[in-house]
Amino acid sequence: MIHTLRRLAAGLLVLAFVSAVTGAAMVSEVLPPPAAGPVRVVALGDSVTSGSNCDCTAFPQLYGDLLHNRSAVPVTVDNQGVAGLDSTGLLQELDLRNSPVEQATKTANVVLLTIGANDFGDHHDDVTSGQCTGDCVSDEYEQLTTNLGRILSRVHALRGDLPTTILVTGYWNVFKDGDVAKQQYTPSGRIASDQLTIRTNTAIAAAARADDATYVDIYTPFENSTDITALLASDGDHPDSAGHALIARLLLAATPNPLPTSPRQGG
Which of 74, 88, 116, 186 is the most buried (most CB within 10 A)? Predict the structure, then answer.
Protein backbone atom coordinates (compact mmCIF):
# COMPACT_ATOMS: atom_id res chain seq x y z
CA MET A 1 0.00 0.00 0.00
CA ILE A 2 2.83 2.40 0.90
CA HIS A 3 4.64 1.63 -2.38
CA THR A 4 1.43 2.26 -4.30
CA LEU A 5 0.97 5.65 -2.66
CA ARG A 6 4.56 6.58 -3.41
CA ARG A 7 4.12 5.66 -7.07
CA LEU A 8 0.90 7.65 -7.19
CA ALA A 9 2.59 10.69 -5.64
CA ALA A 10 5.50 10.47 -8.08
CA GLY A 11 3.09 10.24 -10.97
CA LEU A 12 1.21 13.30 -9.79
CA LEU A 13 4.48 15.26 -9.55
CA VAL A 14 5.41 14.33 -13.13
CA LEU A 15 1.94 15.27 -14.33
CA ALA A 16 2.15 18.63 -12.57
CA PHE A 17 5.57 19.32 -14.10
CA VAL A 18 4.41 18.43 -17.62
CA SER A 19 1.30 20.57 -17.21
CA ALA A 20 3.38 23.52 -16.05
CA VAL A 21 5.79 23.24 -18.97
CA THR A 22 2.98 22.76 -21.48
CA GLY A 23 1.03 25.64 -20.02
CA ALA A 24 4.05 27.93 -20.19
CA ALA A 25 4.64 26.98 -23.80
CA MET A 26 0.99 27.67 -24.65
CA VAL A 27 1.14 31.05 -22.91
CA SER A 28 4.34 31.98 -24.78
CA GLU A 29 2.62 31.11 -28.06
CA VAL A 30 -0.44 33.18 -27.23
CA LEU A 31 1.23 36.25 -25.75
CA PRO A 32 3.00 38.62 -28.20
CA PRO A 33 6.71 39.31 -27.72
CA PRO A 34 7.49 42.31 -25.53
CA ALA A 35 7.25 45.59 -27.38
CA ALA A 36 10.50 47.18 -28.52
CA GLY A 37 11.57 50.32 -26.74
CA PRO A 38 11.78 53.82 -28.21
CA VAL A 39 14.30 54.38 -31.00
CA ARG A 40 16.66 57.34 -31.06
CA VAL A 41 18.22 58.22 -34.40
CA VAL A 42 21.16 60.58 -34.84
CA ALA A 43 22.15 61.76 -38.31
CA LEU A 44 25.77 62.79 -38.72
CA GLY A 45 27.09 64.39 -41.87
CA ASP A 46 27.27 67.30 -44.24
CA SER A 47 24.80 69.45 -46.19
CA VAL A 48 23.14 66.38 -47.69
CA THR A 49 22.19 65.29 -44.19
CA SER A 50 21.18 68.78 -43.07
CA GLY A 51 18.87 69.23 -46.08
CA SER A 52 20.58 72.29 -47.56
CA ASN A 53 19.02 74.04 -50.58
CA CYS A 54 15.92 71.89 -50.50
CA ASP A 55 13.25 73.72 -48.48
CA CYS A 56 11.90 70.28 -47.64
CA THR A 57 12.04 67.65 -44.94
CA ALA A 58 15.52 66.11 -45.03
CA PHE A 59 16.00 62.37 -45.26
CA PRO A 60 16.81 61.74 -41.56
CA GLN A 61 13.33 62.80 -40.43
CA LEU A 62 11.70 61.02 -43.36
CA TYR A 63 13.61 57.89 -42.39
CA GLY A 64 12.49 58.26 -38.78
CA ASP A 65 8.87 58.51 -39.89
CA LEU A 66 9.20 55.40 -42.06
CA LEU A 67 10.88 53.49 -39.23
CA HIS A 68 8.10 54.50 -36.85
CA ASN A 69 5.45 53.33 -39.32
CA ARG A 70 7.21 50.00 -39.73
CA SER A 71 7.99 49.29 -36.09
CA ALA A 72 5.07 51.05 -34.36
CA VAL A 73 7.40 52.37 -31.65
CA PRO A 74 8.29 55.99 -30.88
CA VAL A 75 11.20 57.26 -33.00
CA THR A 76 13.01 60.53 -32.34
CA VAL A 77 15.48 62.01 -34.81
CA ASP A 78 18.36 64.35 -34.01
CA ASN A 79 19.75 65.79 -37.25
CA GLN A 80 23.32 66.92 -36.58
CA GLY A 81 24.17 67.50 -40.24
CA VAL A 82 26.26 70.62 -40.94
CA ALA A 83 26.74 72.20 -44.36
CA GLY A 84 30.38 72.17 -45.43
CA LEU A 85 31.43 69.58 -42.86
CA ASP A 86 34.23 67.22 -43.86
CA SER A 87 35.42 64.02 -42.21
CA THR A 88 38.07 65.79 -40.14
CA GLY A 89 35.48 68.23 -38.78
CA LEU A 90 33.08 65.43 -37.87
CA LEU A 91 35.82 63.51 -36.10
CA GLN A 92 36.69 66.61 -34.09
CA GLU A 93 33.06 67.02 -33.05
CA LEU A 94 32.84 63.38 -31.97
CA ASP A 95 36.05 63.76 -29.95
CA LEU A 96 34.94 67.01 -28.31
CA ARG A 97 33.75 66.22 -24.81
CA ASN A 98 30.08 67.09 -24.22
CA SER A 99 29.61 68.46 -27.74
CA PRO A 100 26.09 68.12 -29.17
CA VAL A 101 27.36 65.52 -31.63
CA GLU A 102 29.02 63.46 -28.90
CA GLN A 103 25.96 63.60 -26.64
CA ALA A 104 23.52 62.77 -29.43
CA THR A 105 25.61 59.82 -30.57
CA LYS A 106 25.85 58.39 -27.05
CA THR A 107 22.08 58.13 -26.76
CA ALA A 108 21.24 56.95 -30.30
CA ASN A 109 20.67 53.30 -31.11
CA VAL A 110 20.54 54.14 -34.83
CA VAL A 111 23.33 56.22 -36.36
CA LEU A 112 23.10 57.59 -39.92
CA LEU A 113 26.39 58.74 -41.45
CA THR A 114 26.97 60.68 -44.68
CA ILE A 115 30.43 62.22 -44.89
CA GLY A 116 33.33 62.60 -47.32
CA ALA A 117 32.35 64.75 -50.30
CA ASN A 118 33.64 67.97 -48.77
CA ASP A 119 37.04 66.42 -48.23
CA PHE A 120 37.71 67.08 -51.92
CA GLY A 121 36.31 70.61 -52.06
CA ASP A 122 39.69 72.27 -52.58
CA HIS A 123 40.10 70.34 -55.83
CA HIS A 124 36.61 70.97 -57.22
CA ASP A 125 37.79 73.12 -60.13
CA ASP A 126 40.70 70.83 -60.99
CA VAL A 127 38.50 67.75 -61.09
CA THR A 128 35.42 69.18 -62.82
CA SER A 129 37.47 70.90 -65.52
CA GLY A 130 39.25 67.67 -66.34
CA GLN A 131 42.61 69.15 -65.37
CA CYS A 132 43.31 66.93 -62.40
CA THR A 133 46.42 65.38 -63.89
CA GLY A 134 47.83 62.42 -62.04
CA ASP A 135 46.23 61.86 -58.65
CA CYS A 136 45.61 65.36 -57.37
CA VAL A 137 43.40 64.13 -54.51
CA SER A 138 45.64 61.36 -53.17
CA ASP A 139 46.36 63.11 -49.88
CA GLU A 140 42.70 63.92 -49.28
CA TYR A 141 41.64 60.39 -50.18
CA GLU A 142 44.15 58.86 -47.78
CA GLN A 143 43.02 61.19 -45.00
CA LEU A 144 39.36 60.38 -45.65
CA THR A 145 40.08 56.65 -45.47
CA THR A 146 41.81 57.11 -42.11
CA ASN A 147 39.11 59.40 -40.76
CA LEU A 148 36.28 57.05 -41.69
CA GLY A 149 37.77 54.28 -39.62
CA ARG A 150 38.34 56.61 -36.68
CA ILE A 151 34.80 58.02 -36.92
CA LEU A 152 33.21 54.58 -36.80
CA SER A 153 35.49 53.48 -33.97
CA ARG A 154 34.53 56.60 -32.05
CA VAL A 155 30.83 55.90 -32.55
CA HIS A 156 31.29 52.40 -31.15
CA ALA A 157 33.27 53.77 -28.21
CA LEU A 158 30.56 56.29 -27.38
CA ARG A 159 27.89 53.63 -27.55
CA GLY A 160 29.86 51.15 -25.44
CA ASP A 161 28.21 47.73 -25.32
CA LEU A 162 24.77 49.02 -26.27
CA PRO A 163 23.20 47.58 -29.44
CA THR A 164 23.66 50.04 -32.29
CA THR A 165 22.69 50.08 -35.96
CA ILE A 166 25.08 52.18 -38.05
CA LEU A 167 24.05 52.99 -41.63
CA VAL A 168 26.68 54.68 -43.78
CA THR A 169 25.65 56.12 -47.14
CA GLY A 170 27.74 56.79 -50.19
CA TYR A 171 27.10 59.59 -52.69
CA TRP A 172 25.54 59.81 -56.16
CA ASN A 173 28.20 62.44 -56.88
CA VAL A 174 30.73 64.21 -54.68
CA PHE A 175 30.18 67.31 -56.84
CA LYS A 176 27.25 68.45 -59.01
CA ASP A 177 25.22 66.19 -61.26
CA GLY A 178 22.35 66.24 -63.73
CA ASP A 179 21.63 69.17 -66.01
CA VAL A 180 23.65 71.59 -63.87
CA ALA A 181 26.79 69.49 -64.23
CA LYS A 182 26.27 69.27 -67.99
CA GLN A 183 26.10 73.05 -68.16
CA GLN A 184 29.03 73.80 -65.85
CA TYR A 185 31.52 70.95 -66.28
CA THR A 186 33.46 69.78 -69.29
CA PRO A 187 32.76 66.23 -70.54
CA SER A 188 36.11 65.08 -69.15
CA GLY A 189 35.33 66.88 -65.91
CA ARG A 190 32.03 65.01 -65.53
CA ILE A 191 33.85 61.73 -66.08
CA ALA A 192 36.49 62.67 -63.52
CA SER A 193 33.81 63.65 -60.99
CA ASP A 194 32.05 60.34 -61.49
CA GLN A 195 35.30 58.40 -61.10
CA LEU A 196 36.12 60.25 -57.89
CA THR A 197 32.64 59.49 -56.59
CA ILE A 198 33.02 55.78 -57.27
CA ARG A 199 36.41 55.82 -55.60
CA THR A 200 35.01 57.66 -52.58
CA ASN A 201 32.10 55.24 -52.27
CA THR A 202 34.51 52.32 -52.41
CA ALA A 203 36.42 53.75 -49.45
CA ILE A 204 33.21 54.40 -47.52
CA ALA A 205 31.93 50.88 -48.17
CA ALA A 206 35.25 49.32 -47.12
CA ALA A 207 35.29 51.33 -43.89
CA ALA A 208 31.73 50.23 -43.11
CA ARG A 209 32.52 46.56 -43.68
CA ALA A 210 35.66 46.76 -41.56
CA ASP A 211 33.96 48.41 -38.59
CA ASP A 212 30.63 46.65 -38.14
CA ALA A 213 28.45 49.12 -40.03
CA THR A 214 26.14 48.74 -43.03
CA TYR A 215 26.94 50.53 -46.29
CA VAL A 216 23.91 51.94 -48.11
CA ASP A 217 24.37 52.43 -51.85
CA ILE A 218 23.01 55.78 -52.98
CA TYR A 219 24.96 55.97 -56.23
CA THR A 220 23.20 53.20 -58.14
CA PRO A 221 19.56 54.23 -57.48
CA PHE A 222 20.31 57.87 -58.33
CA GLU A 223 22.37 57.21 -61.45
CA ASN A 224 19.98 54.54 -62.72
CA SER A 225 16.92 56.74 -62.26
CA THR A 226 14.99 57.89 -65.31
CA ASP A 227 16.16 61.47 -64.75
CA ILE A 228 18.65 62.20 -62.00
CA THR A 229 17.93 65.92 -62.36
CA ALA A 230 14.45 65.25 -60.96
CA LEU A 231 16.10 64.03 -57.74
CA LEU A 232 18.26 67.13 -57.31
CA ALA A 233 17.71 70.66 -56.07
CA SER A 234 18.18 73.58 -58.47
CA ASP A 235 21.89 73.81 -57.57
CA GLY A 236 22.51 70.29 -58.87
CA ASP A 237 24.50 69.58 -55.73
CA HIS A 238 21.89 68.50 -53.17
CA PRO A 239 18.80 66.28 -53.15
CA ASP A 240 15.36 67.77 -53.61
CA SER A 241 12.30 66.39 -51.85
CA ALA A 242 12.16 63.37 -54.17
CA GLY A 243 15.86 62.72 -53.63
CA HIS A 244 15.54 62.89 -49.85
CA ALA A 245 12.54 60.56 -49.98
CA LEU A 246 14.55 58.06 -52.03
CA ILE A 247 17.46 58.14 -49.57
CA ALA A 248 15.07 57.59 -46.66
CA ARG A 249 13.56 54.53 -48.35
CA LEU A 250 17.00 53.09 -49.09
CA LEU A 251 18.01 53.54 -45.46
CA LEU A 252 14.85 51.85 -44.22
CA ALA A 253 15.42 48.90 -46.55
CA ALA A 254 18.91 48.50 -45.07
CA THR A 255 17.68 48.67 -41.47
CA PRO A 256 17.35 45.30 -39.67
CA ASN A 257 13.81 44.40 -38.70
CA PRO A 258 13.66 44.14 -35.77
CA LEU A 259 16.59 46.26 -34.69
CA PRO A 260 19.43 44.20 -33.22
CA THR A 261 19.71 43.51 -29.52
CA SER A 262 23.35 42.39 -29.57
CA PRO A 263 26.09 45.00 -29.07
CA ARG A 264 27.28 44.96 -32.69
CA GLN A 265 25.56 44.81 -36.07
CA GLY A 266 26.82 45.07 -39.59
CA GLY A 267 26.47 43.94 -43.16
Answer: 116
Give the residue from 124, 52, 43 showing the smallest Cα distance to 90. Answer: 43
Check whether the bond before 34 is cis (ω within 30° of 0): no
**Given CA atoms 145, 172, 90, 122 in this order, what sign does their dihedral have?**
positive
Query: How wide is the angle at C-alpha 152 spanned by C-alphas 149 and 155, nearest 5°?
Result: 150
pLDDT tens digit sequence for 4-42: 434 434 444 433 443 443 444 433 333 334 446 899 999
Residues in contact with 36: Cβ distance below 8 Å, sequence separation at least 6, in sequence order: 71, 73, 258, 259
Model confidence, pTM: 0.86
- Cβ contacts of 77 within 8 Å, gap of 6 or more: 41, 42, 43, 60, 61, 63, 64
